[in-house]
Structure formats: structure tokens, C-alpha cells
Amino acid sequence: MSELDGGASAGGETTGGGTGPDGRPEAPAEKSGGGLAGLRRATLWALGVAAALFLYFVIADRTTPFSGDAQVQAFVLRVAPEVTGHVDRVGVVDNQVVQQGDALFAIDPEPFEIAVSQAQARLEQAGQSVGANTAAVDAAQAQLDRARANAENVRAQTARIMELVRKGVYAQAREDQAVSAIEQAEAAVQAAEADLRRAQEQLGPEGESNPAVQDALAALETARYNLARTEMTAPGMGVVTNLQLAIGQTVTAGASAMTFISAEDIWLRAALRENSLGVLEQGQRAEVVLDALPGRIFGATVRSVGWGVAPDAVDPATGLPKSTASQGWLTDPQRFPVILSFDEDQLPRGARYGSRAAVIVYAAGNPVMDAIAWARIRLIALLTYVS
């Protein structure tokens, strides 16, 4: 019995634990206490990391604002003809890079050339009409001069006759005839003056200031303008896309035929939280990572900060950009558009309109936060390879 008891005692020392009331072995007290301490340490570490991250993001919003919601922007133009006609030539293909002055497409010029010829003919007719009216004015002026000369002659003769009548050389009837002749001569002068006025009114101003000539000149200029608009050229360096043209197709004035994306001015539009706007200023340095160019970082500068957004969608009356708000205990802060310009020596070749980007702005000049932001944007640049 003593040996059995000793074996049991030795077995108990080997296992390091006793048995409970139900005969099951109990866990050692030291191991149980060590597990709880490890759990507490892990919890404290997790809380510490969470608190540090929370503190970092609070400070970062006011020192190095970040946005993962940025897009490459450029001027987008709708290319539409100013005249209606049949497409005679298409000089580009969809998504082609073009330079300023490159031919995009042409409309059959023949109808417009005919219109120019007709306008030139009308201008010549107007000139001839003005010439004829000028001759009529000259004739009316000559007639008036003759009538005035005749009236002066009749007045002189009448004066002599009346003198002779007073002296008794002529009878009174001769004086009556002389007075009647004066009245007729003066009436002829008045009629000639009226004819001259009518001729002058019909002629109007002389030369190119004549209304008929001006109207014909305006018609000719319009015809020439329309003829010039049959050739559509690129307004600058850029890309043509959304091409909807084929030879023989009828295009209508004002109807879009293709889209032109300018490459002469490219910028970023980043949505930044409202609580970061107070530290943003024009000219601040920023760094950009483009999804289209993974692993690369581009320098940029804050160009402007938006002053308004529409609450739910683009307001057709103001054109303000869209901004959505979430509901909950902690609402998503409002976001405002911030415009950034790429550095001249770091323009992203290959970036496309609408390409997504991440932006971080060095707004406060804090060396520690700037260093963290520097590392953060480079980590994001590496992650773009797998995003």
C-alpha cells in the first residue's frame, strides 16, 4: 500500500496538478495566470495602436490632408460643325492624338462655293444699281440747274417788261403774261428740286456705305464664312474620341460629331474633407499617385479650393459638383473639390481624363507629419500595382 501511495504521490508531482471533486485533473494556477496576462498585453497593444492611429488621422487632417478620391481633369470640348452638309472627308480615327490645326473632317464645299458666287453676283448688281441711281441723281441735278437758270432769266425779263409797262410802252396785259411766266419758272424749279430729292433718296449714301451695297457685302461675308467652316480642325493639342462620322453622312449644324479632350492644361480635382479646408492654401506642395501609372509619384501644387457643393447631385442652376453624405452616429464629413496643378517638369504622360488618383498635401510644414505623409504616399504608390 505504501508503494502504491508513493507511486501516486510521485505521479502527482510529475503532472504538477491535483484532481478535482469529480476526479478530473485541475490546470496549474501559474499557467492560467500567464494566459490572462498575455491577453491583457495584446488588448493593451491593440488599444494603443488604435489610439495612435486615431490620433494620427486627427492630426493628419489638419497638417497633411489626404484624399483617395481624386481624378485627372482636362477641358472637354464637343466638336460640332457650324454648317449643315454631307461629310466629304474624315481625317482622324477614334482616340487619335492630334495637334493644333490638324484636319478633323470636312463637309462637301460645293454648295457653299455656289453660295459665294451668288453673293458676289448680288454685290455686282448692287453696285450697278448704285451706279444707275447715281446717274439719275446727276440728271436730276442738271435739270434743277437748268430750271433755276431759266427762272433767273424769266425774272430779269419780267422786271424789264414791268418797267416798260409803267412807262406806257407795253400794255398791262404784257405785265400779266410776264408774271405768269415767273410763276411757271418757279414751279419748274420746285419740280426739279423734288425730282432731285427722290433720286437722292433712292440712291442713299454713296459707295460702300450705301445700304444695298452693305447688304450685299454682308451676304458675301456670310457665304465666305460658311465656306470656311466646312473644314473642321483641331483647336489645340489633344485627343479626339467618341468619333461618330463616316464619309457621306449628313451632319447638322450644332450636332456633336466627336469629342476633343485638350492636353494643353491637365489638372487634378480632389475631394477633401471639410475639416481640412481651413489649412489649405493656394500654392501648397502636394504629391500625387495615379492608378494609371502605378509606382510613380508626381509633384503638384494647390491651385484653388472649392467654395460650394450641391447636397445631393449637380445643381443644374449652379453647376456645383456632387457631394454625398452618409447617415449614422459619426456622419461622413462633407467633401469639397480642391484643384491641383501638376508640376511643369512632372506632367504625367499617359494619364487619361478621369483617371483616379490619391493626393496628399503638405499643408502645415510639420517635419514629423510630413515624414509620415511622405512614407504613406509611397506605400500607396506600391499598392497601386495590385489595386
Automatic annotation (TrEMBL):
Key word Glycosyltransferase present: no
Extent of Gly residues compositional bias: 8-21
Pfam families noted in UniProt: BSH_RND
Chain ranges of the Multidrug resistance protein MdtA-like barrel-sandwich hybrid domain: 78-258
Keyword Coiled coil appears in the UniProt entry: yes
Coiled-coil stretches: 137-202
Gene3D superfamilies: 2.40.30.170, 2.40.50.100, Helix hairpin bin (1.10.287.470)
This protein's name: Multidrug resistance efflux pump
Superkingdom field: Bacteria
Assigned keywords, A-Z: Coiled coil
Region (Disordered): 1-34
InterPro entries assigned: MdtA-like_BSH, MFP
